[in-house]
Amino acid sequence: MKTIIFFSVSILVFMGNASRAQDRQQVDAVYKNAVLLYEQKDTFKAIAEFEKVIQQDPNHKDALYNLAVINYALGDQPTAIKFLKRGVHLHDPRALKLLRGQLHEKITYADTMQYIDPATAEKFEKIKNLNAPTLNDITKNILSVSTNAKEQLQLLLLWSHHYMRADGARFFNGGFPLSTPEAIQKRTGLCDEYSNIVDAFCKKIKVQSFRVTGYVRYPDFQPGDALRQTNHAWNFVYLDSSWLACDLFWSTTALEAEGPTPHFVKRLEPEYFLGLPSDFINHHLPADPVFQFDAQPVKIDAFANSPDGIDPQVKRMPYLNYPDSIKILLKLNPESRLLKMARHAYTYNKDNPNELIKESYNYAVGILNDKVSTKNDLKSAKQYLVLAKSLIPLSTDSDIKALKESCDAGLTMADKRMATAR
């Protein structure tokens, strides 16, 4: 794809859609001429040609976006905003990103609702006020108006935006996570609860999904910082033969860090819901590189060294057969899957042993709590406790460091049980 870089945005050479083939050819010809004029630095003639495009095709997203970019570069911010808002109403994520990120323009709920298909929004209105104290009730209500899995997830997005709120007190002051039933009953949570809701919902509607942890850049992030612990959780869902990224928390709430008191606000952000993994990697880095869904994943330094996006100067990882890795993970039971993902995560980022410590410890505890565990099972539990204990000194997390005594107690219990186990 040919692009013309202009400041931090691009003039695009995509073609729009018109109602008939002949009309489309005419529109595309004018659009090509507009791009050519811009390349030749004949800016005002280019503007005139782009305006001809939207006269013939008012829904031509790329012409609208380019007119916004050019007018912004010329210092005409009100006109740029006008074209970008038209783009938002046509579901153009680039327009929304520019309005919020570069022009700091406030977007209303009505603006963001333009991202949702009107038919889906209408279905939500039918179930919005129905009683739904549990996930079973939410699922039942959604299934009563939709048979399409993608739309069902979008209805969950709308329900969550309408009813859920971020647990700001726990985010800023700490505390224990909630179970999925508790989160729905209290209508509150953070990324852990929101991603668990998506995971549980996908099981109910029979959509393959993964809940993953990883790294995002919060306001205190500095390029070059070592990523010593994961700080976010989200999902990947399998729809229409493709894996899509799904962050229900970021899609329905936003952290307002500016001002005297940081706080969360409700905000519908559909661009973080059902997005391409190749786009998500710019702001969501999975702890396990398998979930980049890329044969040559980016290295962690490419994310950590950049204030946003991926540093192209950092060489990518060697070939990774991620489709086979995904197939293997899907065949494992939940405990073994989490353990394998944690191994991948530690291999990927040696600065963060926490995931492998937690999952090794949890896996061992599961064996010790099983009254019918065999001697071989208990040997395996000991191995995982020893592994967890060996990694604890590498962690900077006080909660992780506190697991040392529990590991010692687990090893003692394993030895006692092995004396009588078969």
Automatic annotation (TrEMBL):
Recorded superkingdom: Bacteria
InterPro entries: CAP/Cytokinesis_protein (IPR052557), Papain-like_cys_pep_sf (IPR038765), TPR-like_helical_dom_sf (IPR011990), TPR_rpt (IPR019734), Transglutaminase-like (IPR002931)
Keyword presence, ATP-binding: no
Key words of the record: TPR repeat
First and last residues of every TPR repeat: 27-60
Family matches, as Pfam families: TPR_19 (PF14559), Transglut_core (PF01841)
GO cellular component: cytoplasm
Domain Transglutaminase-like: 138-247
PROSITE patterns linked: TPR
Protein name per UniProt: Transglutaminase-like domain-containing protein
Originating organism: Chryseolinea soli
Taxonomic classification: Bacteria, Pseudomonadati, Bacteroidota, Cytophagia, Cytophagales
